Amino acid sequence: MTNKTDPTGDVRLTGIAKTYGDFTAVHPLDLTVPQGSFFALLGASGCGKTTTLRMIAGLEEPSAGTVHLGDQDVTALPPYKRPVNTVFQSYALFPHLDIFENVAFGLRRRGLKSVRKQVEEMLDLVQLGEQARKKPHQLSGGQQQRVAVARALINHPKVLLLDEPLGALDLKLRRQMQLELKRIQTEVGITFIHVTHDQEEAMTMADTVAVMNAGRVEQLGSPTDLYENPGTTFVANFLGTSNFIEAEVDSKSGDDIVLKAGGGKLVLPEARCSAPASTGGKVLVGVRPEKISLTHADDAGEIPEGRNRITGRIADSSFIGVSTQYVVDSPVCPGFEVYAQNIDRDPRLVPGAEVVLHWNPAHTFGLDAAQSVF
Ligand code: ATP
């Protein structure tokens, strides 16, 4: 086990970049991954996350910048001399060796003779102690992936790099393995850097997520922070669904910004606004669909004071068991999405009904209105 607060094991990327001819896959990037954290590089296909991971592994030579592991500059070191190991989506197990020997491989290559205790401990860690004498093809995809993790951890790397390791698994197994990998990481306490395009996966597993877009880190933060306080429309949309209203700054009131939208007013906590908010300026106001309540217009008088509210008409509704998804057309935002839990469902809330959408101002975030809402 390693000390989670030891800064000497931090992974530090300084000005790291990768170009292929005229094409820049990764723009100069500064990033620190604290030792002992579960860190995710999240982004759509082609955004540069695998290239970044491969530069940490030493599998790709950076065009500029340095990679440090603690105090050690490893930029010029070949992969096998770095205290890191990589787990790939393809498992890459040796088909002719049994599970025990697959995991023992790294130890035997170092010339160690008595490997039993270490291999058994590692197999117990990934809960495959009973499968030691099976061959890889006799295991499920999830079990094979756990063998790959055990094999990568056996030499106690300082950092484990995971390149879409769950990409080949079906959804149910993927979810199980997300929790399993998180448990393993917590138990061994080493740094995991995980590449994925799946926002739910990154949010489930990681302490810190770097959202990448077109070769740059667009935002870095904890899953809740990124979800609650996205700094750009890209991040807001990549991590879930968001509604946007273009509003104009009217005034400041204590810690809040008061905005004009259509004929009404909206309140936005200043701390949740990443845009400059001078009077008369434009701000893109965002609110997540599940934060919004929907009240039939006839009952508007029952809505508590102090909530942000806009009016609209239900355009569409889809019952999906636990909740109903509504699309509401409002003068300030066509196609507003609302996810409402089906507790005390109001039977009047059907397409065509006039409604008031309302939410706690604390759940509002403000973005620079110059961005596109894609
Ligand atoms: P994916 O999830 O599809 O693997 P990614 O975010 O991991 O995507 P990278 O594999 O890092 O993306 O690739 C980033 C960009 O660099 C892509 O546009 C890719 O086509 C390009 N690229 C990667 N390797 C090379 C190479 N050897 N030569 C030229 N271009 C490359």
Automatic annotation (TrEMBL):
Q: Which reaction does it catalyse?
A: ATP + H2O + polyamine-[polyamine-binding protein]Side 1 = ADP + phosphate + polyamineSide 2 + [polyamine-binding protein]Side 1
Q: Provide the family line.
A: Belongs to the ABC transporter superfamily. Spermidine/putrescine importer (TC 3.A.1.11.1) family.
**Pfam families with a match to the protein in the record:** ABC_tran, TOBE_2
Q: What is its quaternary makeup?
A: The complex is composed of two ATP-binding proteins (PotA), two transmembrane proteins (PotB and PotC) and a solute-binding protein (PotD).
Q: Which GO terms describe its molecular function?
A: ABC-type putrescine transporter activity; ATP binding; ATP hydrolysis activity
Q: What EC number(s) are associated with this protein in UniProt?
A: 7.6.2.11
Function according to Swiss-Prot or TrEMBL: Part of the ABC transporter complex PotABCD involved in spermidine/putrescine import. Responsible for energy coupling to the transport system.
State the name under which the record lists this protein: Spermidine/putrescine import ATP-binding protein PotA
Instruction: Tell me the Gene3D superfamilies matching this sequence.
Output: 2.40.50.100, P-loop containing nucleotide triphosphate hydrolases
Per the record's keyword annotation, is Transmembrane included, yes or no? no
Identify the NCBIfam families for this entry. Answer: potA (TIGR01187)
Going by the UniProt record, its keywords in alphabetical order are: ATP-binding, Cell membrane, Membrane, Nucleotide-binding, Translocase, Transport
Q: What Gene Ontology terms describe where this protein resides (cellular component)? A: ATP-binding cassette (ABC) transporter complex
Looking up InterPro entries in the UniProt record yields: AAA+_ATPase, ABC_SmlMolc_Importer, ABC_transporter-like_ATP-bd, ABC_transporter-like_CS, Mo/tungstate-bd_C_term_dom, P-loop_NTPase, PotA-like, PotA_ATP-bd
Coding gene?
Answer: potA
Give the ABC transporter domain ranges. Answer: 11-239
The root-end lineage is: Bacteria, Bacillati, Actinomycetota, Actinomycetes, Kitasatosporales
